[in-house]
């Protein structure tokens, strides 16, 4: 007498856990590692044309060499606004205006700053772990509701084990991503 409404949607649970990992990777991309990357500008918004606009929608972002990011601003009237937004963003880079181009020389990170960044990365990964555990809790709540609706003890245990396996896999992926990012940050 098993009905379909007692099925737990593992795909949805896995998708939500993968979403937490994807969000973590976006946060990691915004961390400066001493190597130039256009993604350090992703979070910076510029007041342009009456609204907040990402820099990559105001110009072309290139990385011509390992320690340089170059922005070719399309509208010459926006150059000073883009420069100001970068200065005020707190990424610790001083933009250099060169005609229509804004050059961002990426300074070498010192040991203390590298250690700070590894702690920030660890904080980001802990947020991802919490998000994954929240998804796990939602899955376990679905199982409890299904038990109340007549799911057998064996099925309940099987579904709980499946949800836990997805959780363990997602947490392991977060840990692996953190380890890679911390190695990248500490690399001189």
How much of the sequence is in beta strands? 15-25%
Number of domains: 2
Give the C-alpha Rg: 23 Å
Biggest pleated-sheet summary: 4 strands, antiparallel
SS field, number of helical segments: 4
Give the SSE order as H and E letters.
HEEEEHEEHH
Topology, number of strands: 6
Q: What is the typical, i.e. mean, pLDDT?
A: 87
- Spatial strand sequence of the major β-sheet: 3-4-6-5
Say what the CATH topology of the largest domain is: Topoisomerase I, Chain A, domain 4
Helical residues, percent = 40-55%
User: What is the molecular shape?
Assistant: elongated
Structural account:
With 188 residues, this protein is of the alpha+beta class. It folds into 2 domains: 10-28 and 110-186, Ribosome-recycling factor (Topoisomerase I, Chain A, domain 4, Orthogonal Bundle), CATH 1.10.132.20; 35-105, 2-Layer Sandwich (Gyrase A, domain 2), CATH 3.30.1360. Helices cover 54% and strands 15% of the residues. The strands form 2 sheets. The protein has a 4-stranded antiparallel β-sheet with strand order 3-4-6-5, covered by helices on one side. The protein is elongated. The mean pLDDT is 87.
